[in-house]
Amino acid sequence: MRVVIPGGTGQVGAMLRRALKSAGHEVVVLSRRPSGPDEVAWDGRTQGAWTKEIDGSDAVINLAGRSVSCRYTEANLLAMMDSRVDSARVVGEAIAGAQRPPRVWLQMSTATVYAHRHDAANDEAHGVIGGAEDGVPDYWAYSVEIAKRWERTQAEAVTPDTRKVALRAAMVMSPDRGGVFSVLSRMTRLGIGGPVAGGRQYVSWIHERDFVRAVEFLIEREDIEGPVNLAAPVPLPQRAFMRELRGAWGMPLGLPATKAMAELGAFVLRSDTELLLKSRRVVPGRLLDAGFTFEQPEWGGAAAELVARTRA
Length: 312
Description:
Blueprint: E1 2-6, H1 11-22, E2 26-31, E3 39-41, H2 51-54, E4 59-62, H3 74-96, E5 104-108, H4 140-156, E6 163-169, E7 171-173, H5 180-189, E8 202-203, E9 205-207, H6 208-220, E10 226-230, E11 236-237, H7 238-249, H8 259-268, H9 274-277, H10 285-289, H11 299-311
Parallel strand pairs: 1-2, 1-4, 2-3, 4-5, 5-6, 6-10, 7-9
Antiparallel strand pairs: 8-11
Helix pairs in contact: 3-4, 5-7, 7-11
């Protein structure tokens, strides 16, 4: 199988590339700064020579978009929006113009599209789309709008011969340096991996192996299209999430942080508190209904496995 991954040089792209190549597939990565034999240049905004990689491929997995690990300034939020919408648009145009279009286009999206809530889990059928919640910062609605326009751009692309799936992904946990698991583990080992702002907010996550397996599953399942939640079936409150991670690292204590302390820490790390404070209670309804089974459904076991590999 020939797979093209626009924006595949980040943590998730590197993980997918490793797994797909190990399974014997041909992988081509579209990158703004290509550096290897299987990487091809593109700018994420305009058509170019890269479109010939799409023509004749079996699957396209578009991961392109500015990192969310930054301060949510007006300029950065606009860059997040433009990079996601523009890349989805040009990928759709390339597929529409291909003589031999791919049979499936998997478009990265985000579980952030759902509302901040504690009362019930969000699946694809009954989940509440965010943007109108009370008591949250106004700019959180912009993050939701980014996700909605990201998905809408894919949905509106005219690709009648290509099935389209939007991957509403939770945080992907792998031991790769710089990934979210690496950052959370460093906090834990420094003794600051306690509850943040009380820790009631839910954390949704997915183990890297289950993410890869879900992508492979969705490529093969020709009866599935539209939004699909890529998240483990057991989200948990942040205080419990960090307690399990501390246990995996053998750290008995984790200092708690108030909302103000979280805001200060996010400022120092040039990140944003939405990543810590928004309650993302997301479950994989469509995957489970389709018969997908998770190797790591619960965070305790997943954390232990990731810590063991990090140590090794």
